[in-house]
Design brief:
single chain; alpha+beta; 1 helix
Amino acid sequence: MKTKPPNSRAFTLIEMILAVGVAALVLAVVGSVLFTALHLRDATQAAVDAATPVDQALSVMRRDLECAVTPTNGTSKVLSGDFRVGTLTSPGLNQPVAIEMYTATGALRDNAPWADIQKVTYELRDPTDRHAPGKDLYRSVTRNVMATTMPEVDDQWMLGGVQSVEFSCFDGSQWSDTWDTTGITSVNTNLPAAVRVRIQLAGNNPATTQPIEMLVPIDSQSRTNAVLN
């Protein structure tokens, strides 16, 4: 007698080929999604890294302007000097500066015999790397504002790759690219009502790319324009 073989079911060759093809397609889609996610992460990280120095520079600049000290008119200037904007010369610096102000942003320390008022200037300098685009933005700080000799200046690098930096002052009715409370080149005797900062990064076409702009209101104002001696 012939026995009937047990009923068994196995995958055919065609079914195996289809299964392998579907698995390969799924892996290809997953790999494409993963590659896109990694590329997006790298692009986002690069954008954040590029924006971080700009944000830090603008934050420090805003704090300096918001804490600007009202100028003391006349010949007696104790802890409070002038507020000047334009192409200026400043003692202790060999290159022209874009702004010079006295601001109460100095950090008080037990080992530093200085007050919180310090003189701050912002200027552009040639980069140490000659192949780098644009110039470097520096913040120069003088802590000893009552020095009888040439004071020591602390140069702080703020931002690289800068094409130009501009400061404009608002007097309540119009904007001006210059401001000088010394009375030598203008009749300004007080702080401006607001300061506008424009930073054009190197490599950007000014005709098609808007510069980085920041507007800082100045709340500190002198109550009188009387000359103090």
